[in-house]
């Protein structure tokens, strides 16, 4: 098992800009695959065992935007991207609020953002317990929620948000692991993170956080590929003035806004690619 001493990381940061190549030189310690610690084998298993507890123990929130084309001669817009937080609420803190904002909605008021990037569909599973929310974790490849799967299958792209620790990622404290099977999407995200000074590591270097399983909803899109972000605990904590389930949505920081803006810009650029056109 190889560890990177914290002092070594700080020394490197003092002499170099925080970027992908720096993080790529670090070695992540082995981490448990998320499924090894799961109590429930699937979302269906969780919903069955906790029947009647939705709204108390857990919640599901999603939004599918209405699109219509009743014209014989003209083509109208269609949904391209869905944003997901499979372990929101108290499970992987901050991912619910990030999901809403990246989909184009203020996480507190749900008012659409006026940043010119439009709105996207979203789906979230959230832990509502006062403690012990980790027990509600269902690893992504075992997610069989019918709404989540159908939304991924009808989208060209999925951006999936998760939380990890810096030790799991093998990174500096505030960083993000960029995974998934859509290499173009990953490249766009990493470029935007460089512009705002957010440290990143490629998921290919961290197998447990890579998001490359074809059963993972992030890759169950019309293109069979998507992008997954694993944000470290420290990075997520810096995005909120009040880091509680009740307080996060109304206390987002400039760091939150910069990160959301970077991701939304990457999505907009992705939509300009040739494979984003449905013939």
Jot down its keywords.
279 residues, alpha/beta, Aminopeptidase, seven-stranded mixed sheet, 7 strands, 28% helix
Concise synopsis of the structure shown:
The chain has 279 residues and is of the alpha/beta class. It has nine helices and seven strands, in the order H-H-H-E-E-H-E-H-E-H-E-H-E-E-H-H.
Write a structural description.
This protein is α/β, with parallel strands linked by helices and 279 residues long. It has one domain: Poly-gamma-glutamate hydrolase, zinc-binding motif (Aminopeptidase), CATH 3.40.630.100. 28% of the residues lie in helices and 16% in strands. It has helices spanning 6-15, 20-24, 43-49, 95-102, 146-153, 166-169, 183-196, 233-237, 254-270, and strands spanning 58-63, 81-89, 121-127, 157-164, 175-179, 199-202, 227-232. A seven-stranded mixed β-sheet has the order 1-3-2-4-7-5-6, with helices on both faces. The longest helix has 17 residues, at 254-270. The radius of gyration is 18 Å and the shape is globular. 44% of the residues are buried. The model is unreliable at 1-19 and 27-33 (pLDDT under 50).
